[in-house]
Write a structure and sequence with these properties.
Length: 217
């Protein structure tokens, strides 16, 4: 399973990248706004700064909601850097735009996906990634991981190439559950990735080894 970090914060991206296990980055307008990035030029420069930090795919979301606007913005984003994946919302215009980019060989990530039916259209349009939102479904008492499992099964059944990118991951348990149901990618906050390292037996075992190592001096 690939690991993407879900942030526009350069320090966190750098920290995750230094772990050596990072495969890419996802951003969205809310994450960009949180970092205070304003204005087209600053936005594009920020994506370039992210691409400089990591080797993998960097999802950059279009702000337009109409087909023509998405195509115009997506072409600009794709031209910016070879690592950019154009992120497009799962709407009627969005699906049309994904098909346009697929036909041009431009990679896409379809965001705001909350059902198997949406994921079917996303795959048929040829998206590189589909992003079902786990945490936001959990927030409304619907099992987000179950949606990941059902989309993974459907894509395997019909042999679709679109990769299932579990988004809206809120904590470490979500990552473990994504592994169990066979997600291709999980995009996670740094804290959730670091949580994978935590185990009391690792801590106590290391304390013993350190104490015993002193006896070997
Ligand atoms: C990433 O692709 C999504 O935009 C992001 O994971 C959404 O996460 P949230 O539901 O925590 O805002």
């Amino acid at each position: 399973m690939k690991f993407f970090i879900d942030t526009a914060n350069l320090a966190q991206i750098k920290e995750a990248n230094e772990l050596g296990v990072l495969d890419g980055v996802t951003t969205n307008p809310s994450l960009m706004a949180k970092e205070g990035i304003k204005g087209k030029e600053n936005v594009l420069n920020h994506y370039l700064a992210i691409c400089d930090l990591v080797d993998g795919d960097v999802s950059a979301e279009v702000l337009a909601t109409d087909y023509e606007g998405m195509v115009k913005e997506g072409l600009e984003l794709a031209k910016l850097h070879k690592q950019i994946v154009v992120k497009i919302p799962c709407t009627k215009d969005g699906i049309k735009a994904i098909k346009f980019f697929t036909d041009k060989g431009i990679r896409t990530n379809c965001t705001l996906v909350f059902s198997v039916g949406q994921a079917l259209l996303v795959a048929k349009a040829g998206a590189t990634y589909v992003s079902p939102f786990v945490g936001r479904l959990d927030d409304i008492s619907t099992d987000g991981i179950d949606l990941i499992a059902r989309i993974v099964d459907m894509y395997r059944e019909y042999d679709f190439d679109t990769q299932v990118l579990a988004a809206s991951i809120r904590h470490t348990m979500h990552i473990n559950q994504c592994v169990e149901v066979g997600a291709d990618v999980a995009t996670c906050p740094l804290s959730a990735i670091e949580g994978l390292l935590k185990h009391p037996l690792t801590d106590s075992g290391l304390a013993t080894f350190i104490a015993d190592a002193k006896k070997m001096d």
